[in-house]
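Why should sequence recovery work at all? Because a backbone constrains its sequence more than one might expect. Tight turns favour small or flexible residues, buried strands favour hydrophobic ones, and helices have their own preferences. The token representation captures these environments compactly. In the example below, the structure is given first.
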């Protein structure tokens, strides 16, 4: 096992890698951003990871999601992701949760068991719920803001939610977090102005609506940026829970 991670250990040193390896993390959403978070964390040496998603792989995921292949279309994402992670490290402990995390079922998940939580979900309600609960419990959290309708991964940043700009999702999150009393929230976001996607007609009611656009490189780069932050925090920071 040490040989597999030898080049990572060269950077983190034995002590830092040991802290990382002993950590347990949760990734909510294993799509365009979350899939790359999982990939990078397990390749870096995380040995215990819980993944949460209720979607199946679809053909429209092929342009950006690391688990999306023609051979996986129609399969549920957590099963495909778990199999991939175990192929990277057969010893990794993967907890699979086929569910959408929402305020209605949030009580079923004990967030205090995690050394770090990664929010890579799409819905504001779920993001706010994770932010409020992690803030109250003192559980380290990083949340992905909007990665769609963007072309330039060099404009990705990590900052506190109250220091963000440009991103419409971050703007919405700032407003709700302020109302909910969340004083700080680490996020990954883009300073790039969103590009307006092509309009299409909604066949149900005839109205025109935007179809979210995406690329192979912005969501993946955001996922890798998040994973880098989490690895550095767990290896060198103060994000680990005290040992009992």
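From this structural description, the recovered sequence reads:
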């Amino acid at each position: 096992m040490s040989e597999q991670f030898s080049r990572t250990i060269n950077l983190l040193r034995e002590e830092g890698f040991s802290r990382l390896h002993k950590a347990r993390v949760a990734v909510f959403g294993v799509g365009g951003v979350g899939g790359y978070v999982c990939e990078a964390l397990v390749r870096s040496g995380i040995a215990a990871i819980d993944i949460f998603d209720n979607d199946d792989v679809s053909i429209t995921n092929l342009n950006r999601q690391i688990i999306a292949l023609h051979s996986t279309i129609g399969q549920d994402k957590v099963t495909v992701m778990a199999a991939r992670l175990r192929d990277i490290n057969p010893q990794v402990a993967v907890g699979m949760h086929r569910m959408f995390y929402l305020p209605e079922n949030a009580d079923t998940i004990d967030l205090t068991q995690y050394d770090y939580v990664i929010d890579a979900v799409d819905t504001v309600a779920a993001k706010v719920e994770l932010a409020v609960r992690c803030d109250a419990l003192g559980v380290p959290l990083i949340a992905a803001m909007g990665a769609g309708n963007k072309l330039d991964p060099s404009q990705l940043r990590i900052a506190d939610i109250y220091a963000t700009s440009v991103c419409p999702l971050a703007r919405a999150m700032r407003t709700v977090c302020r109302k909910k009393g969340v004083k700080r929230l680490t996020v990954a976001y883009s300073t790039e102005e969103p590009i307006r996607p092509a309009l299409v007609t909604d066949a149900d009611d005839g109205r025109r609506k935007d179809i979210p656009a995406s690329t192979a490189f912005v969501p993946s780069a955001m996922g890798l940026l998040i994973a880098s932050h989490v690895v550095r925090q767990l290896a060198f920071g103060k994000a680990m829970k005290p040992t009992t």
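A few observations help interpret the result. The domain at 6-236 is CATH 3.40.50.720 (Rossmann fold).
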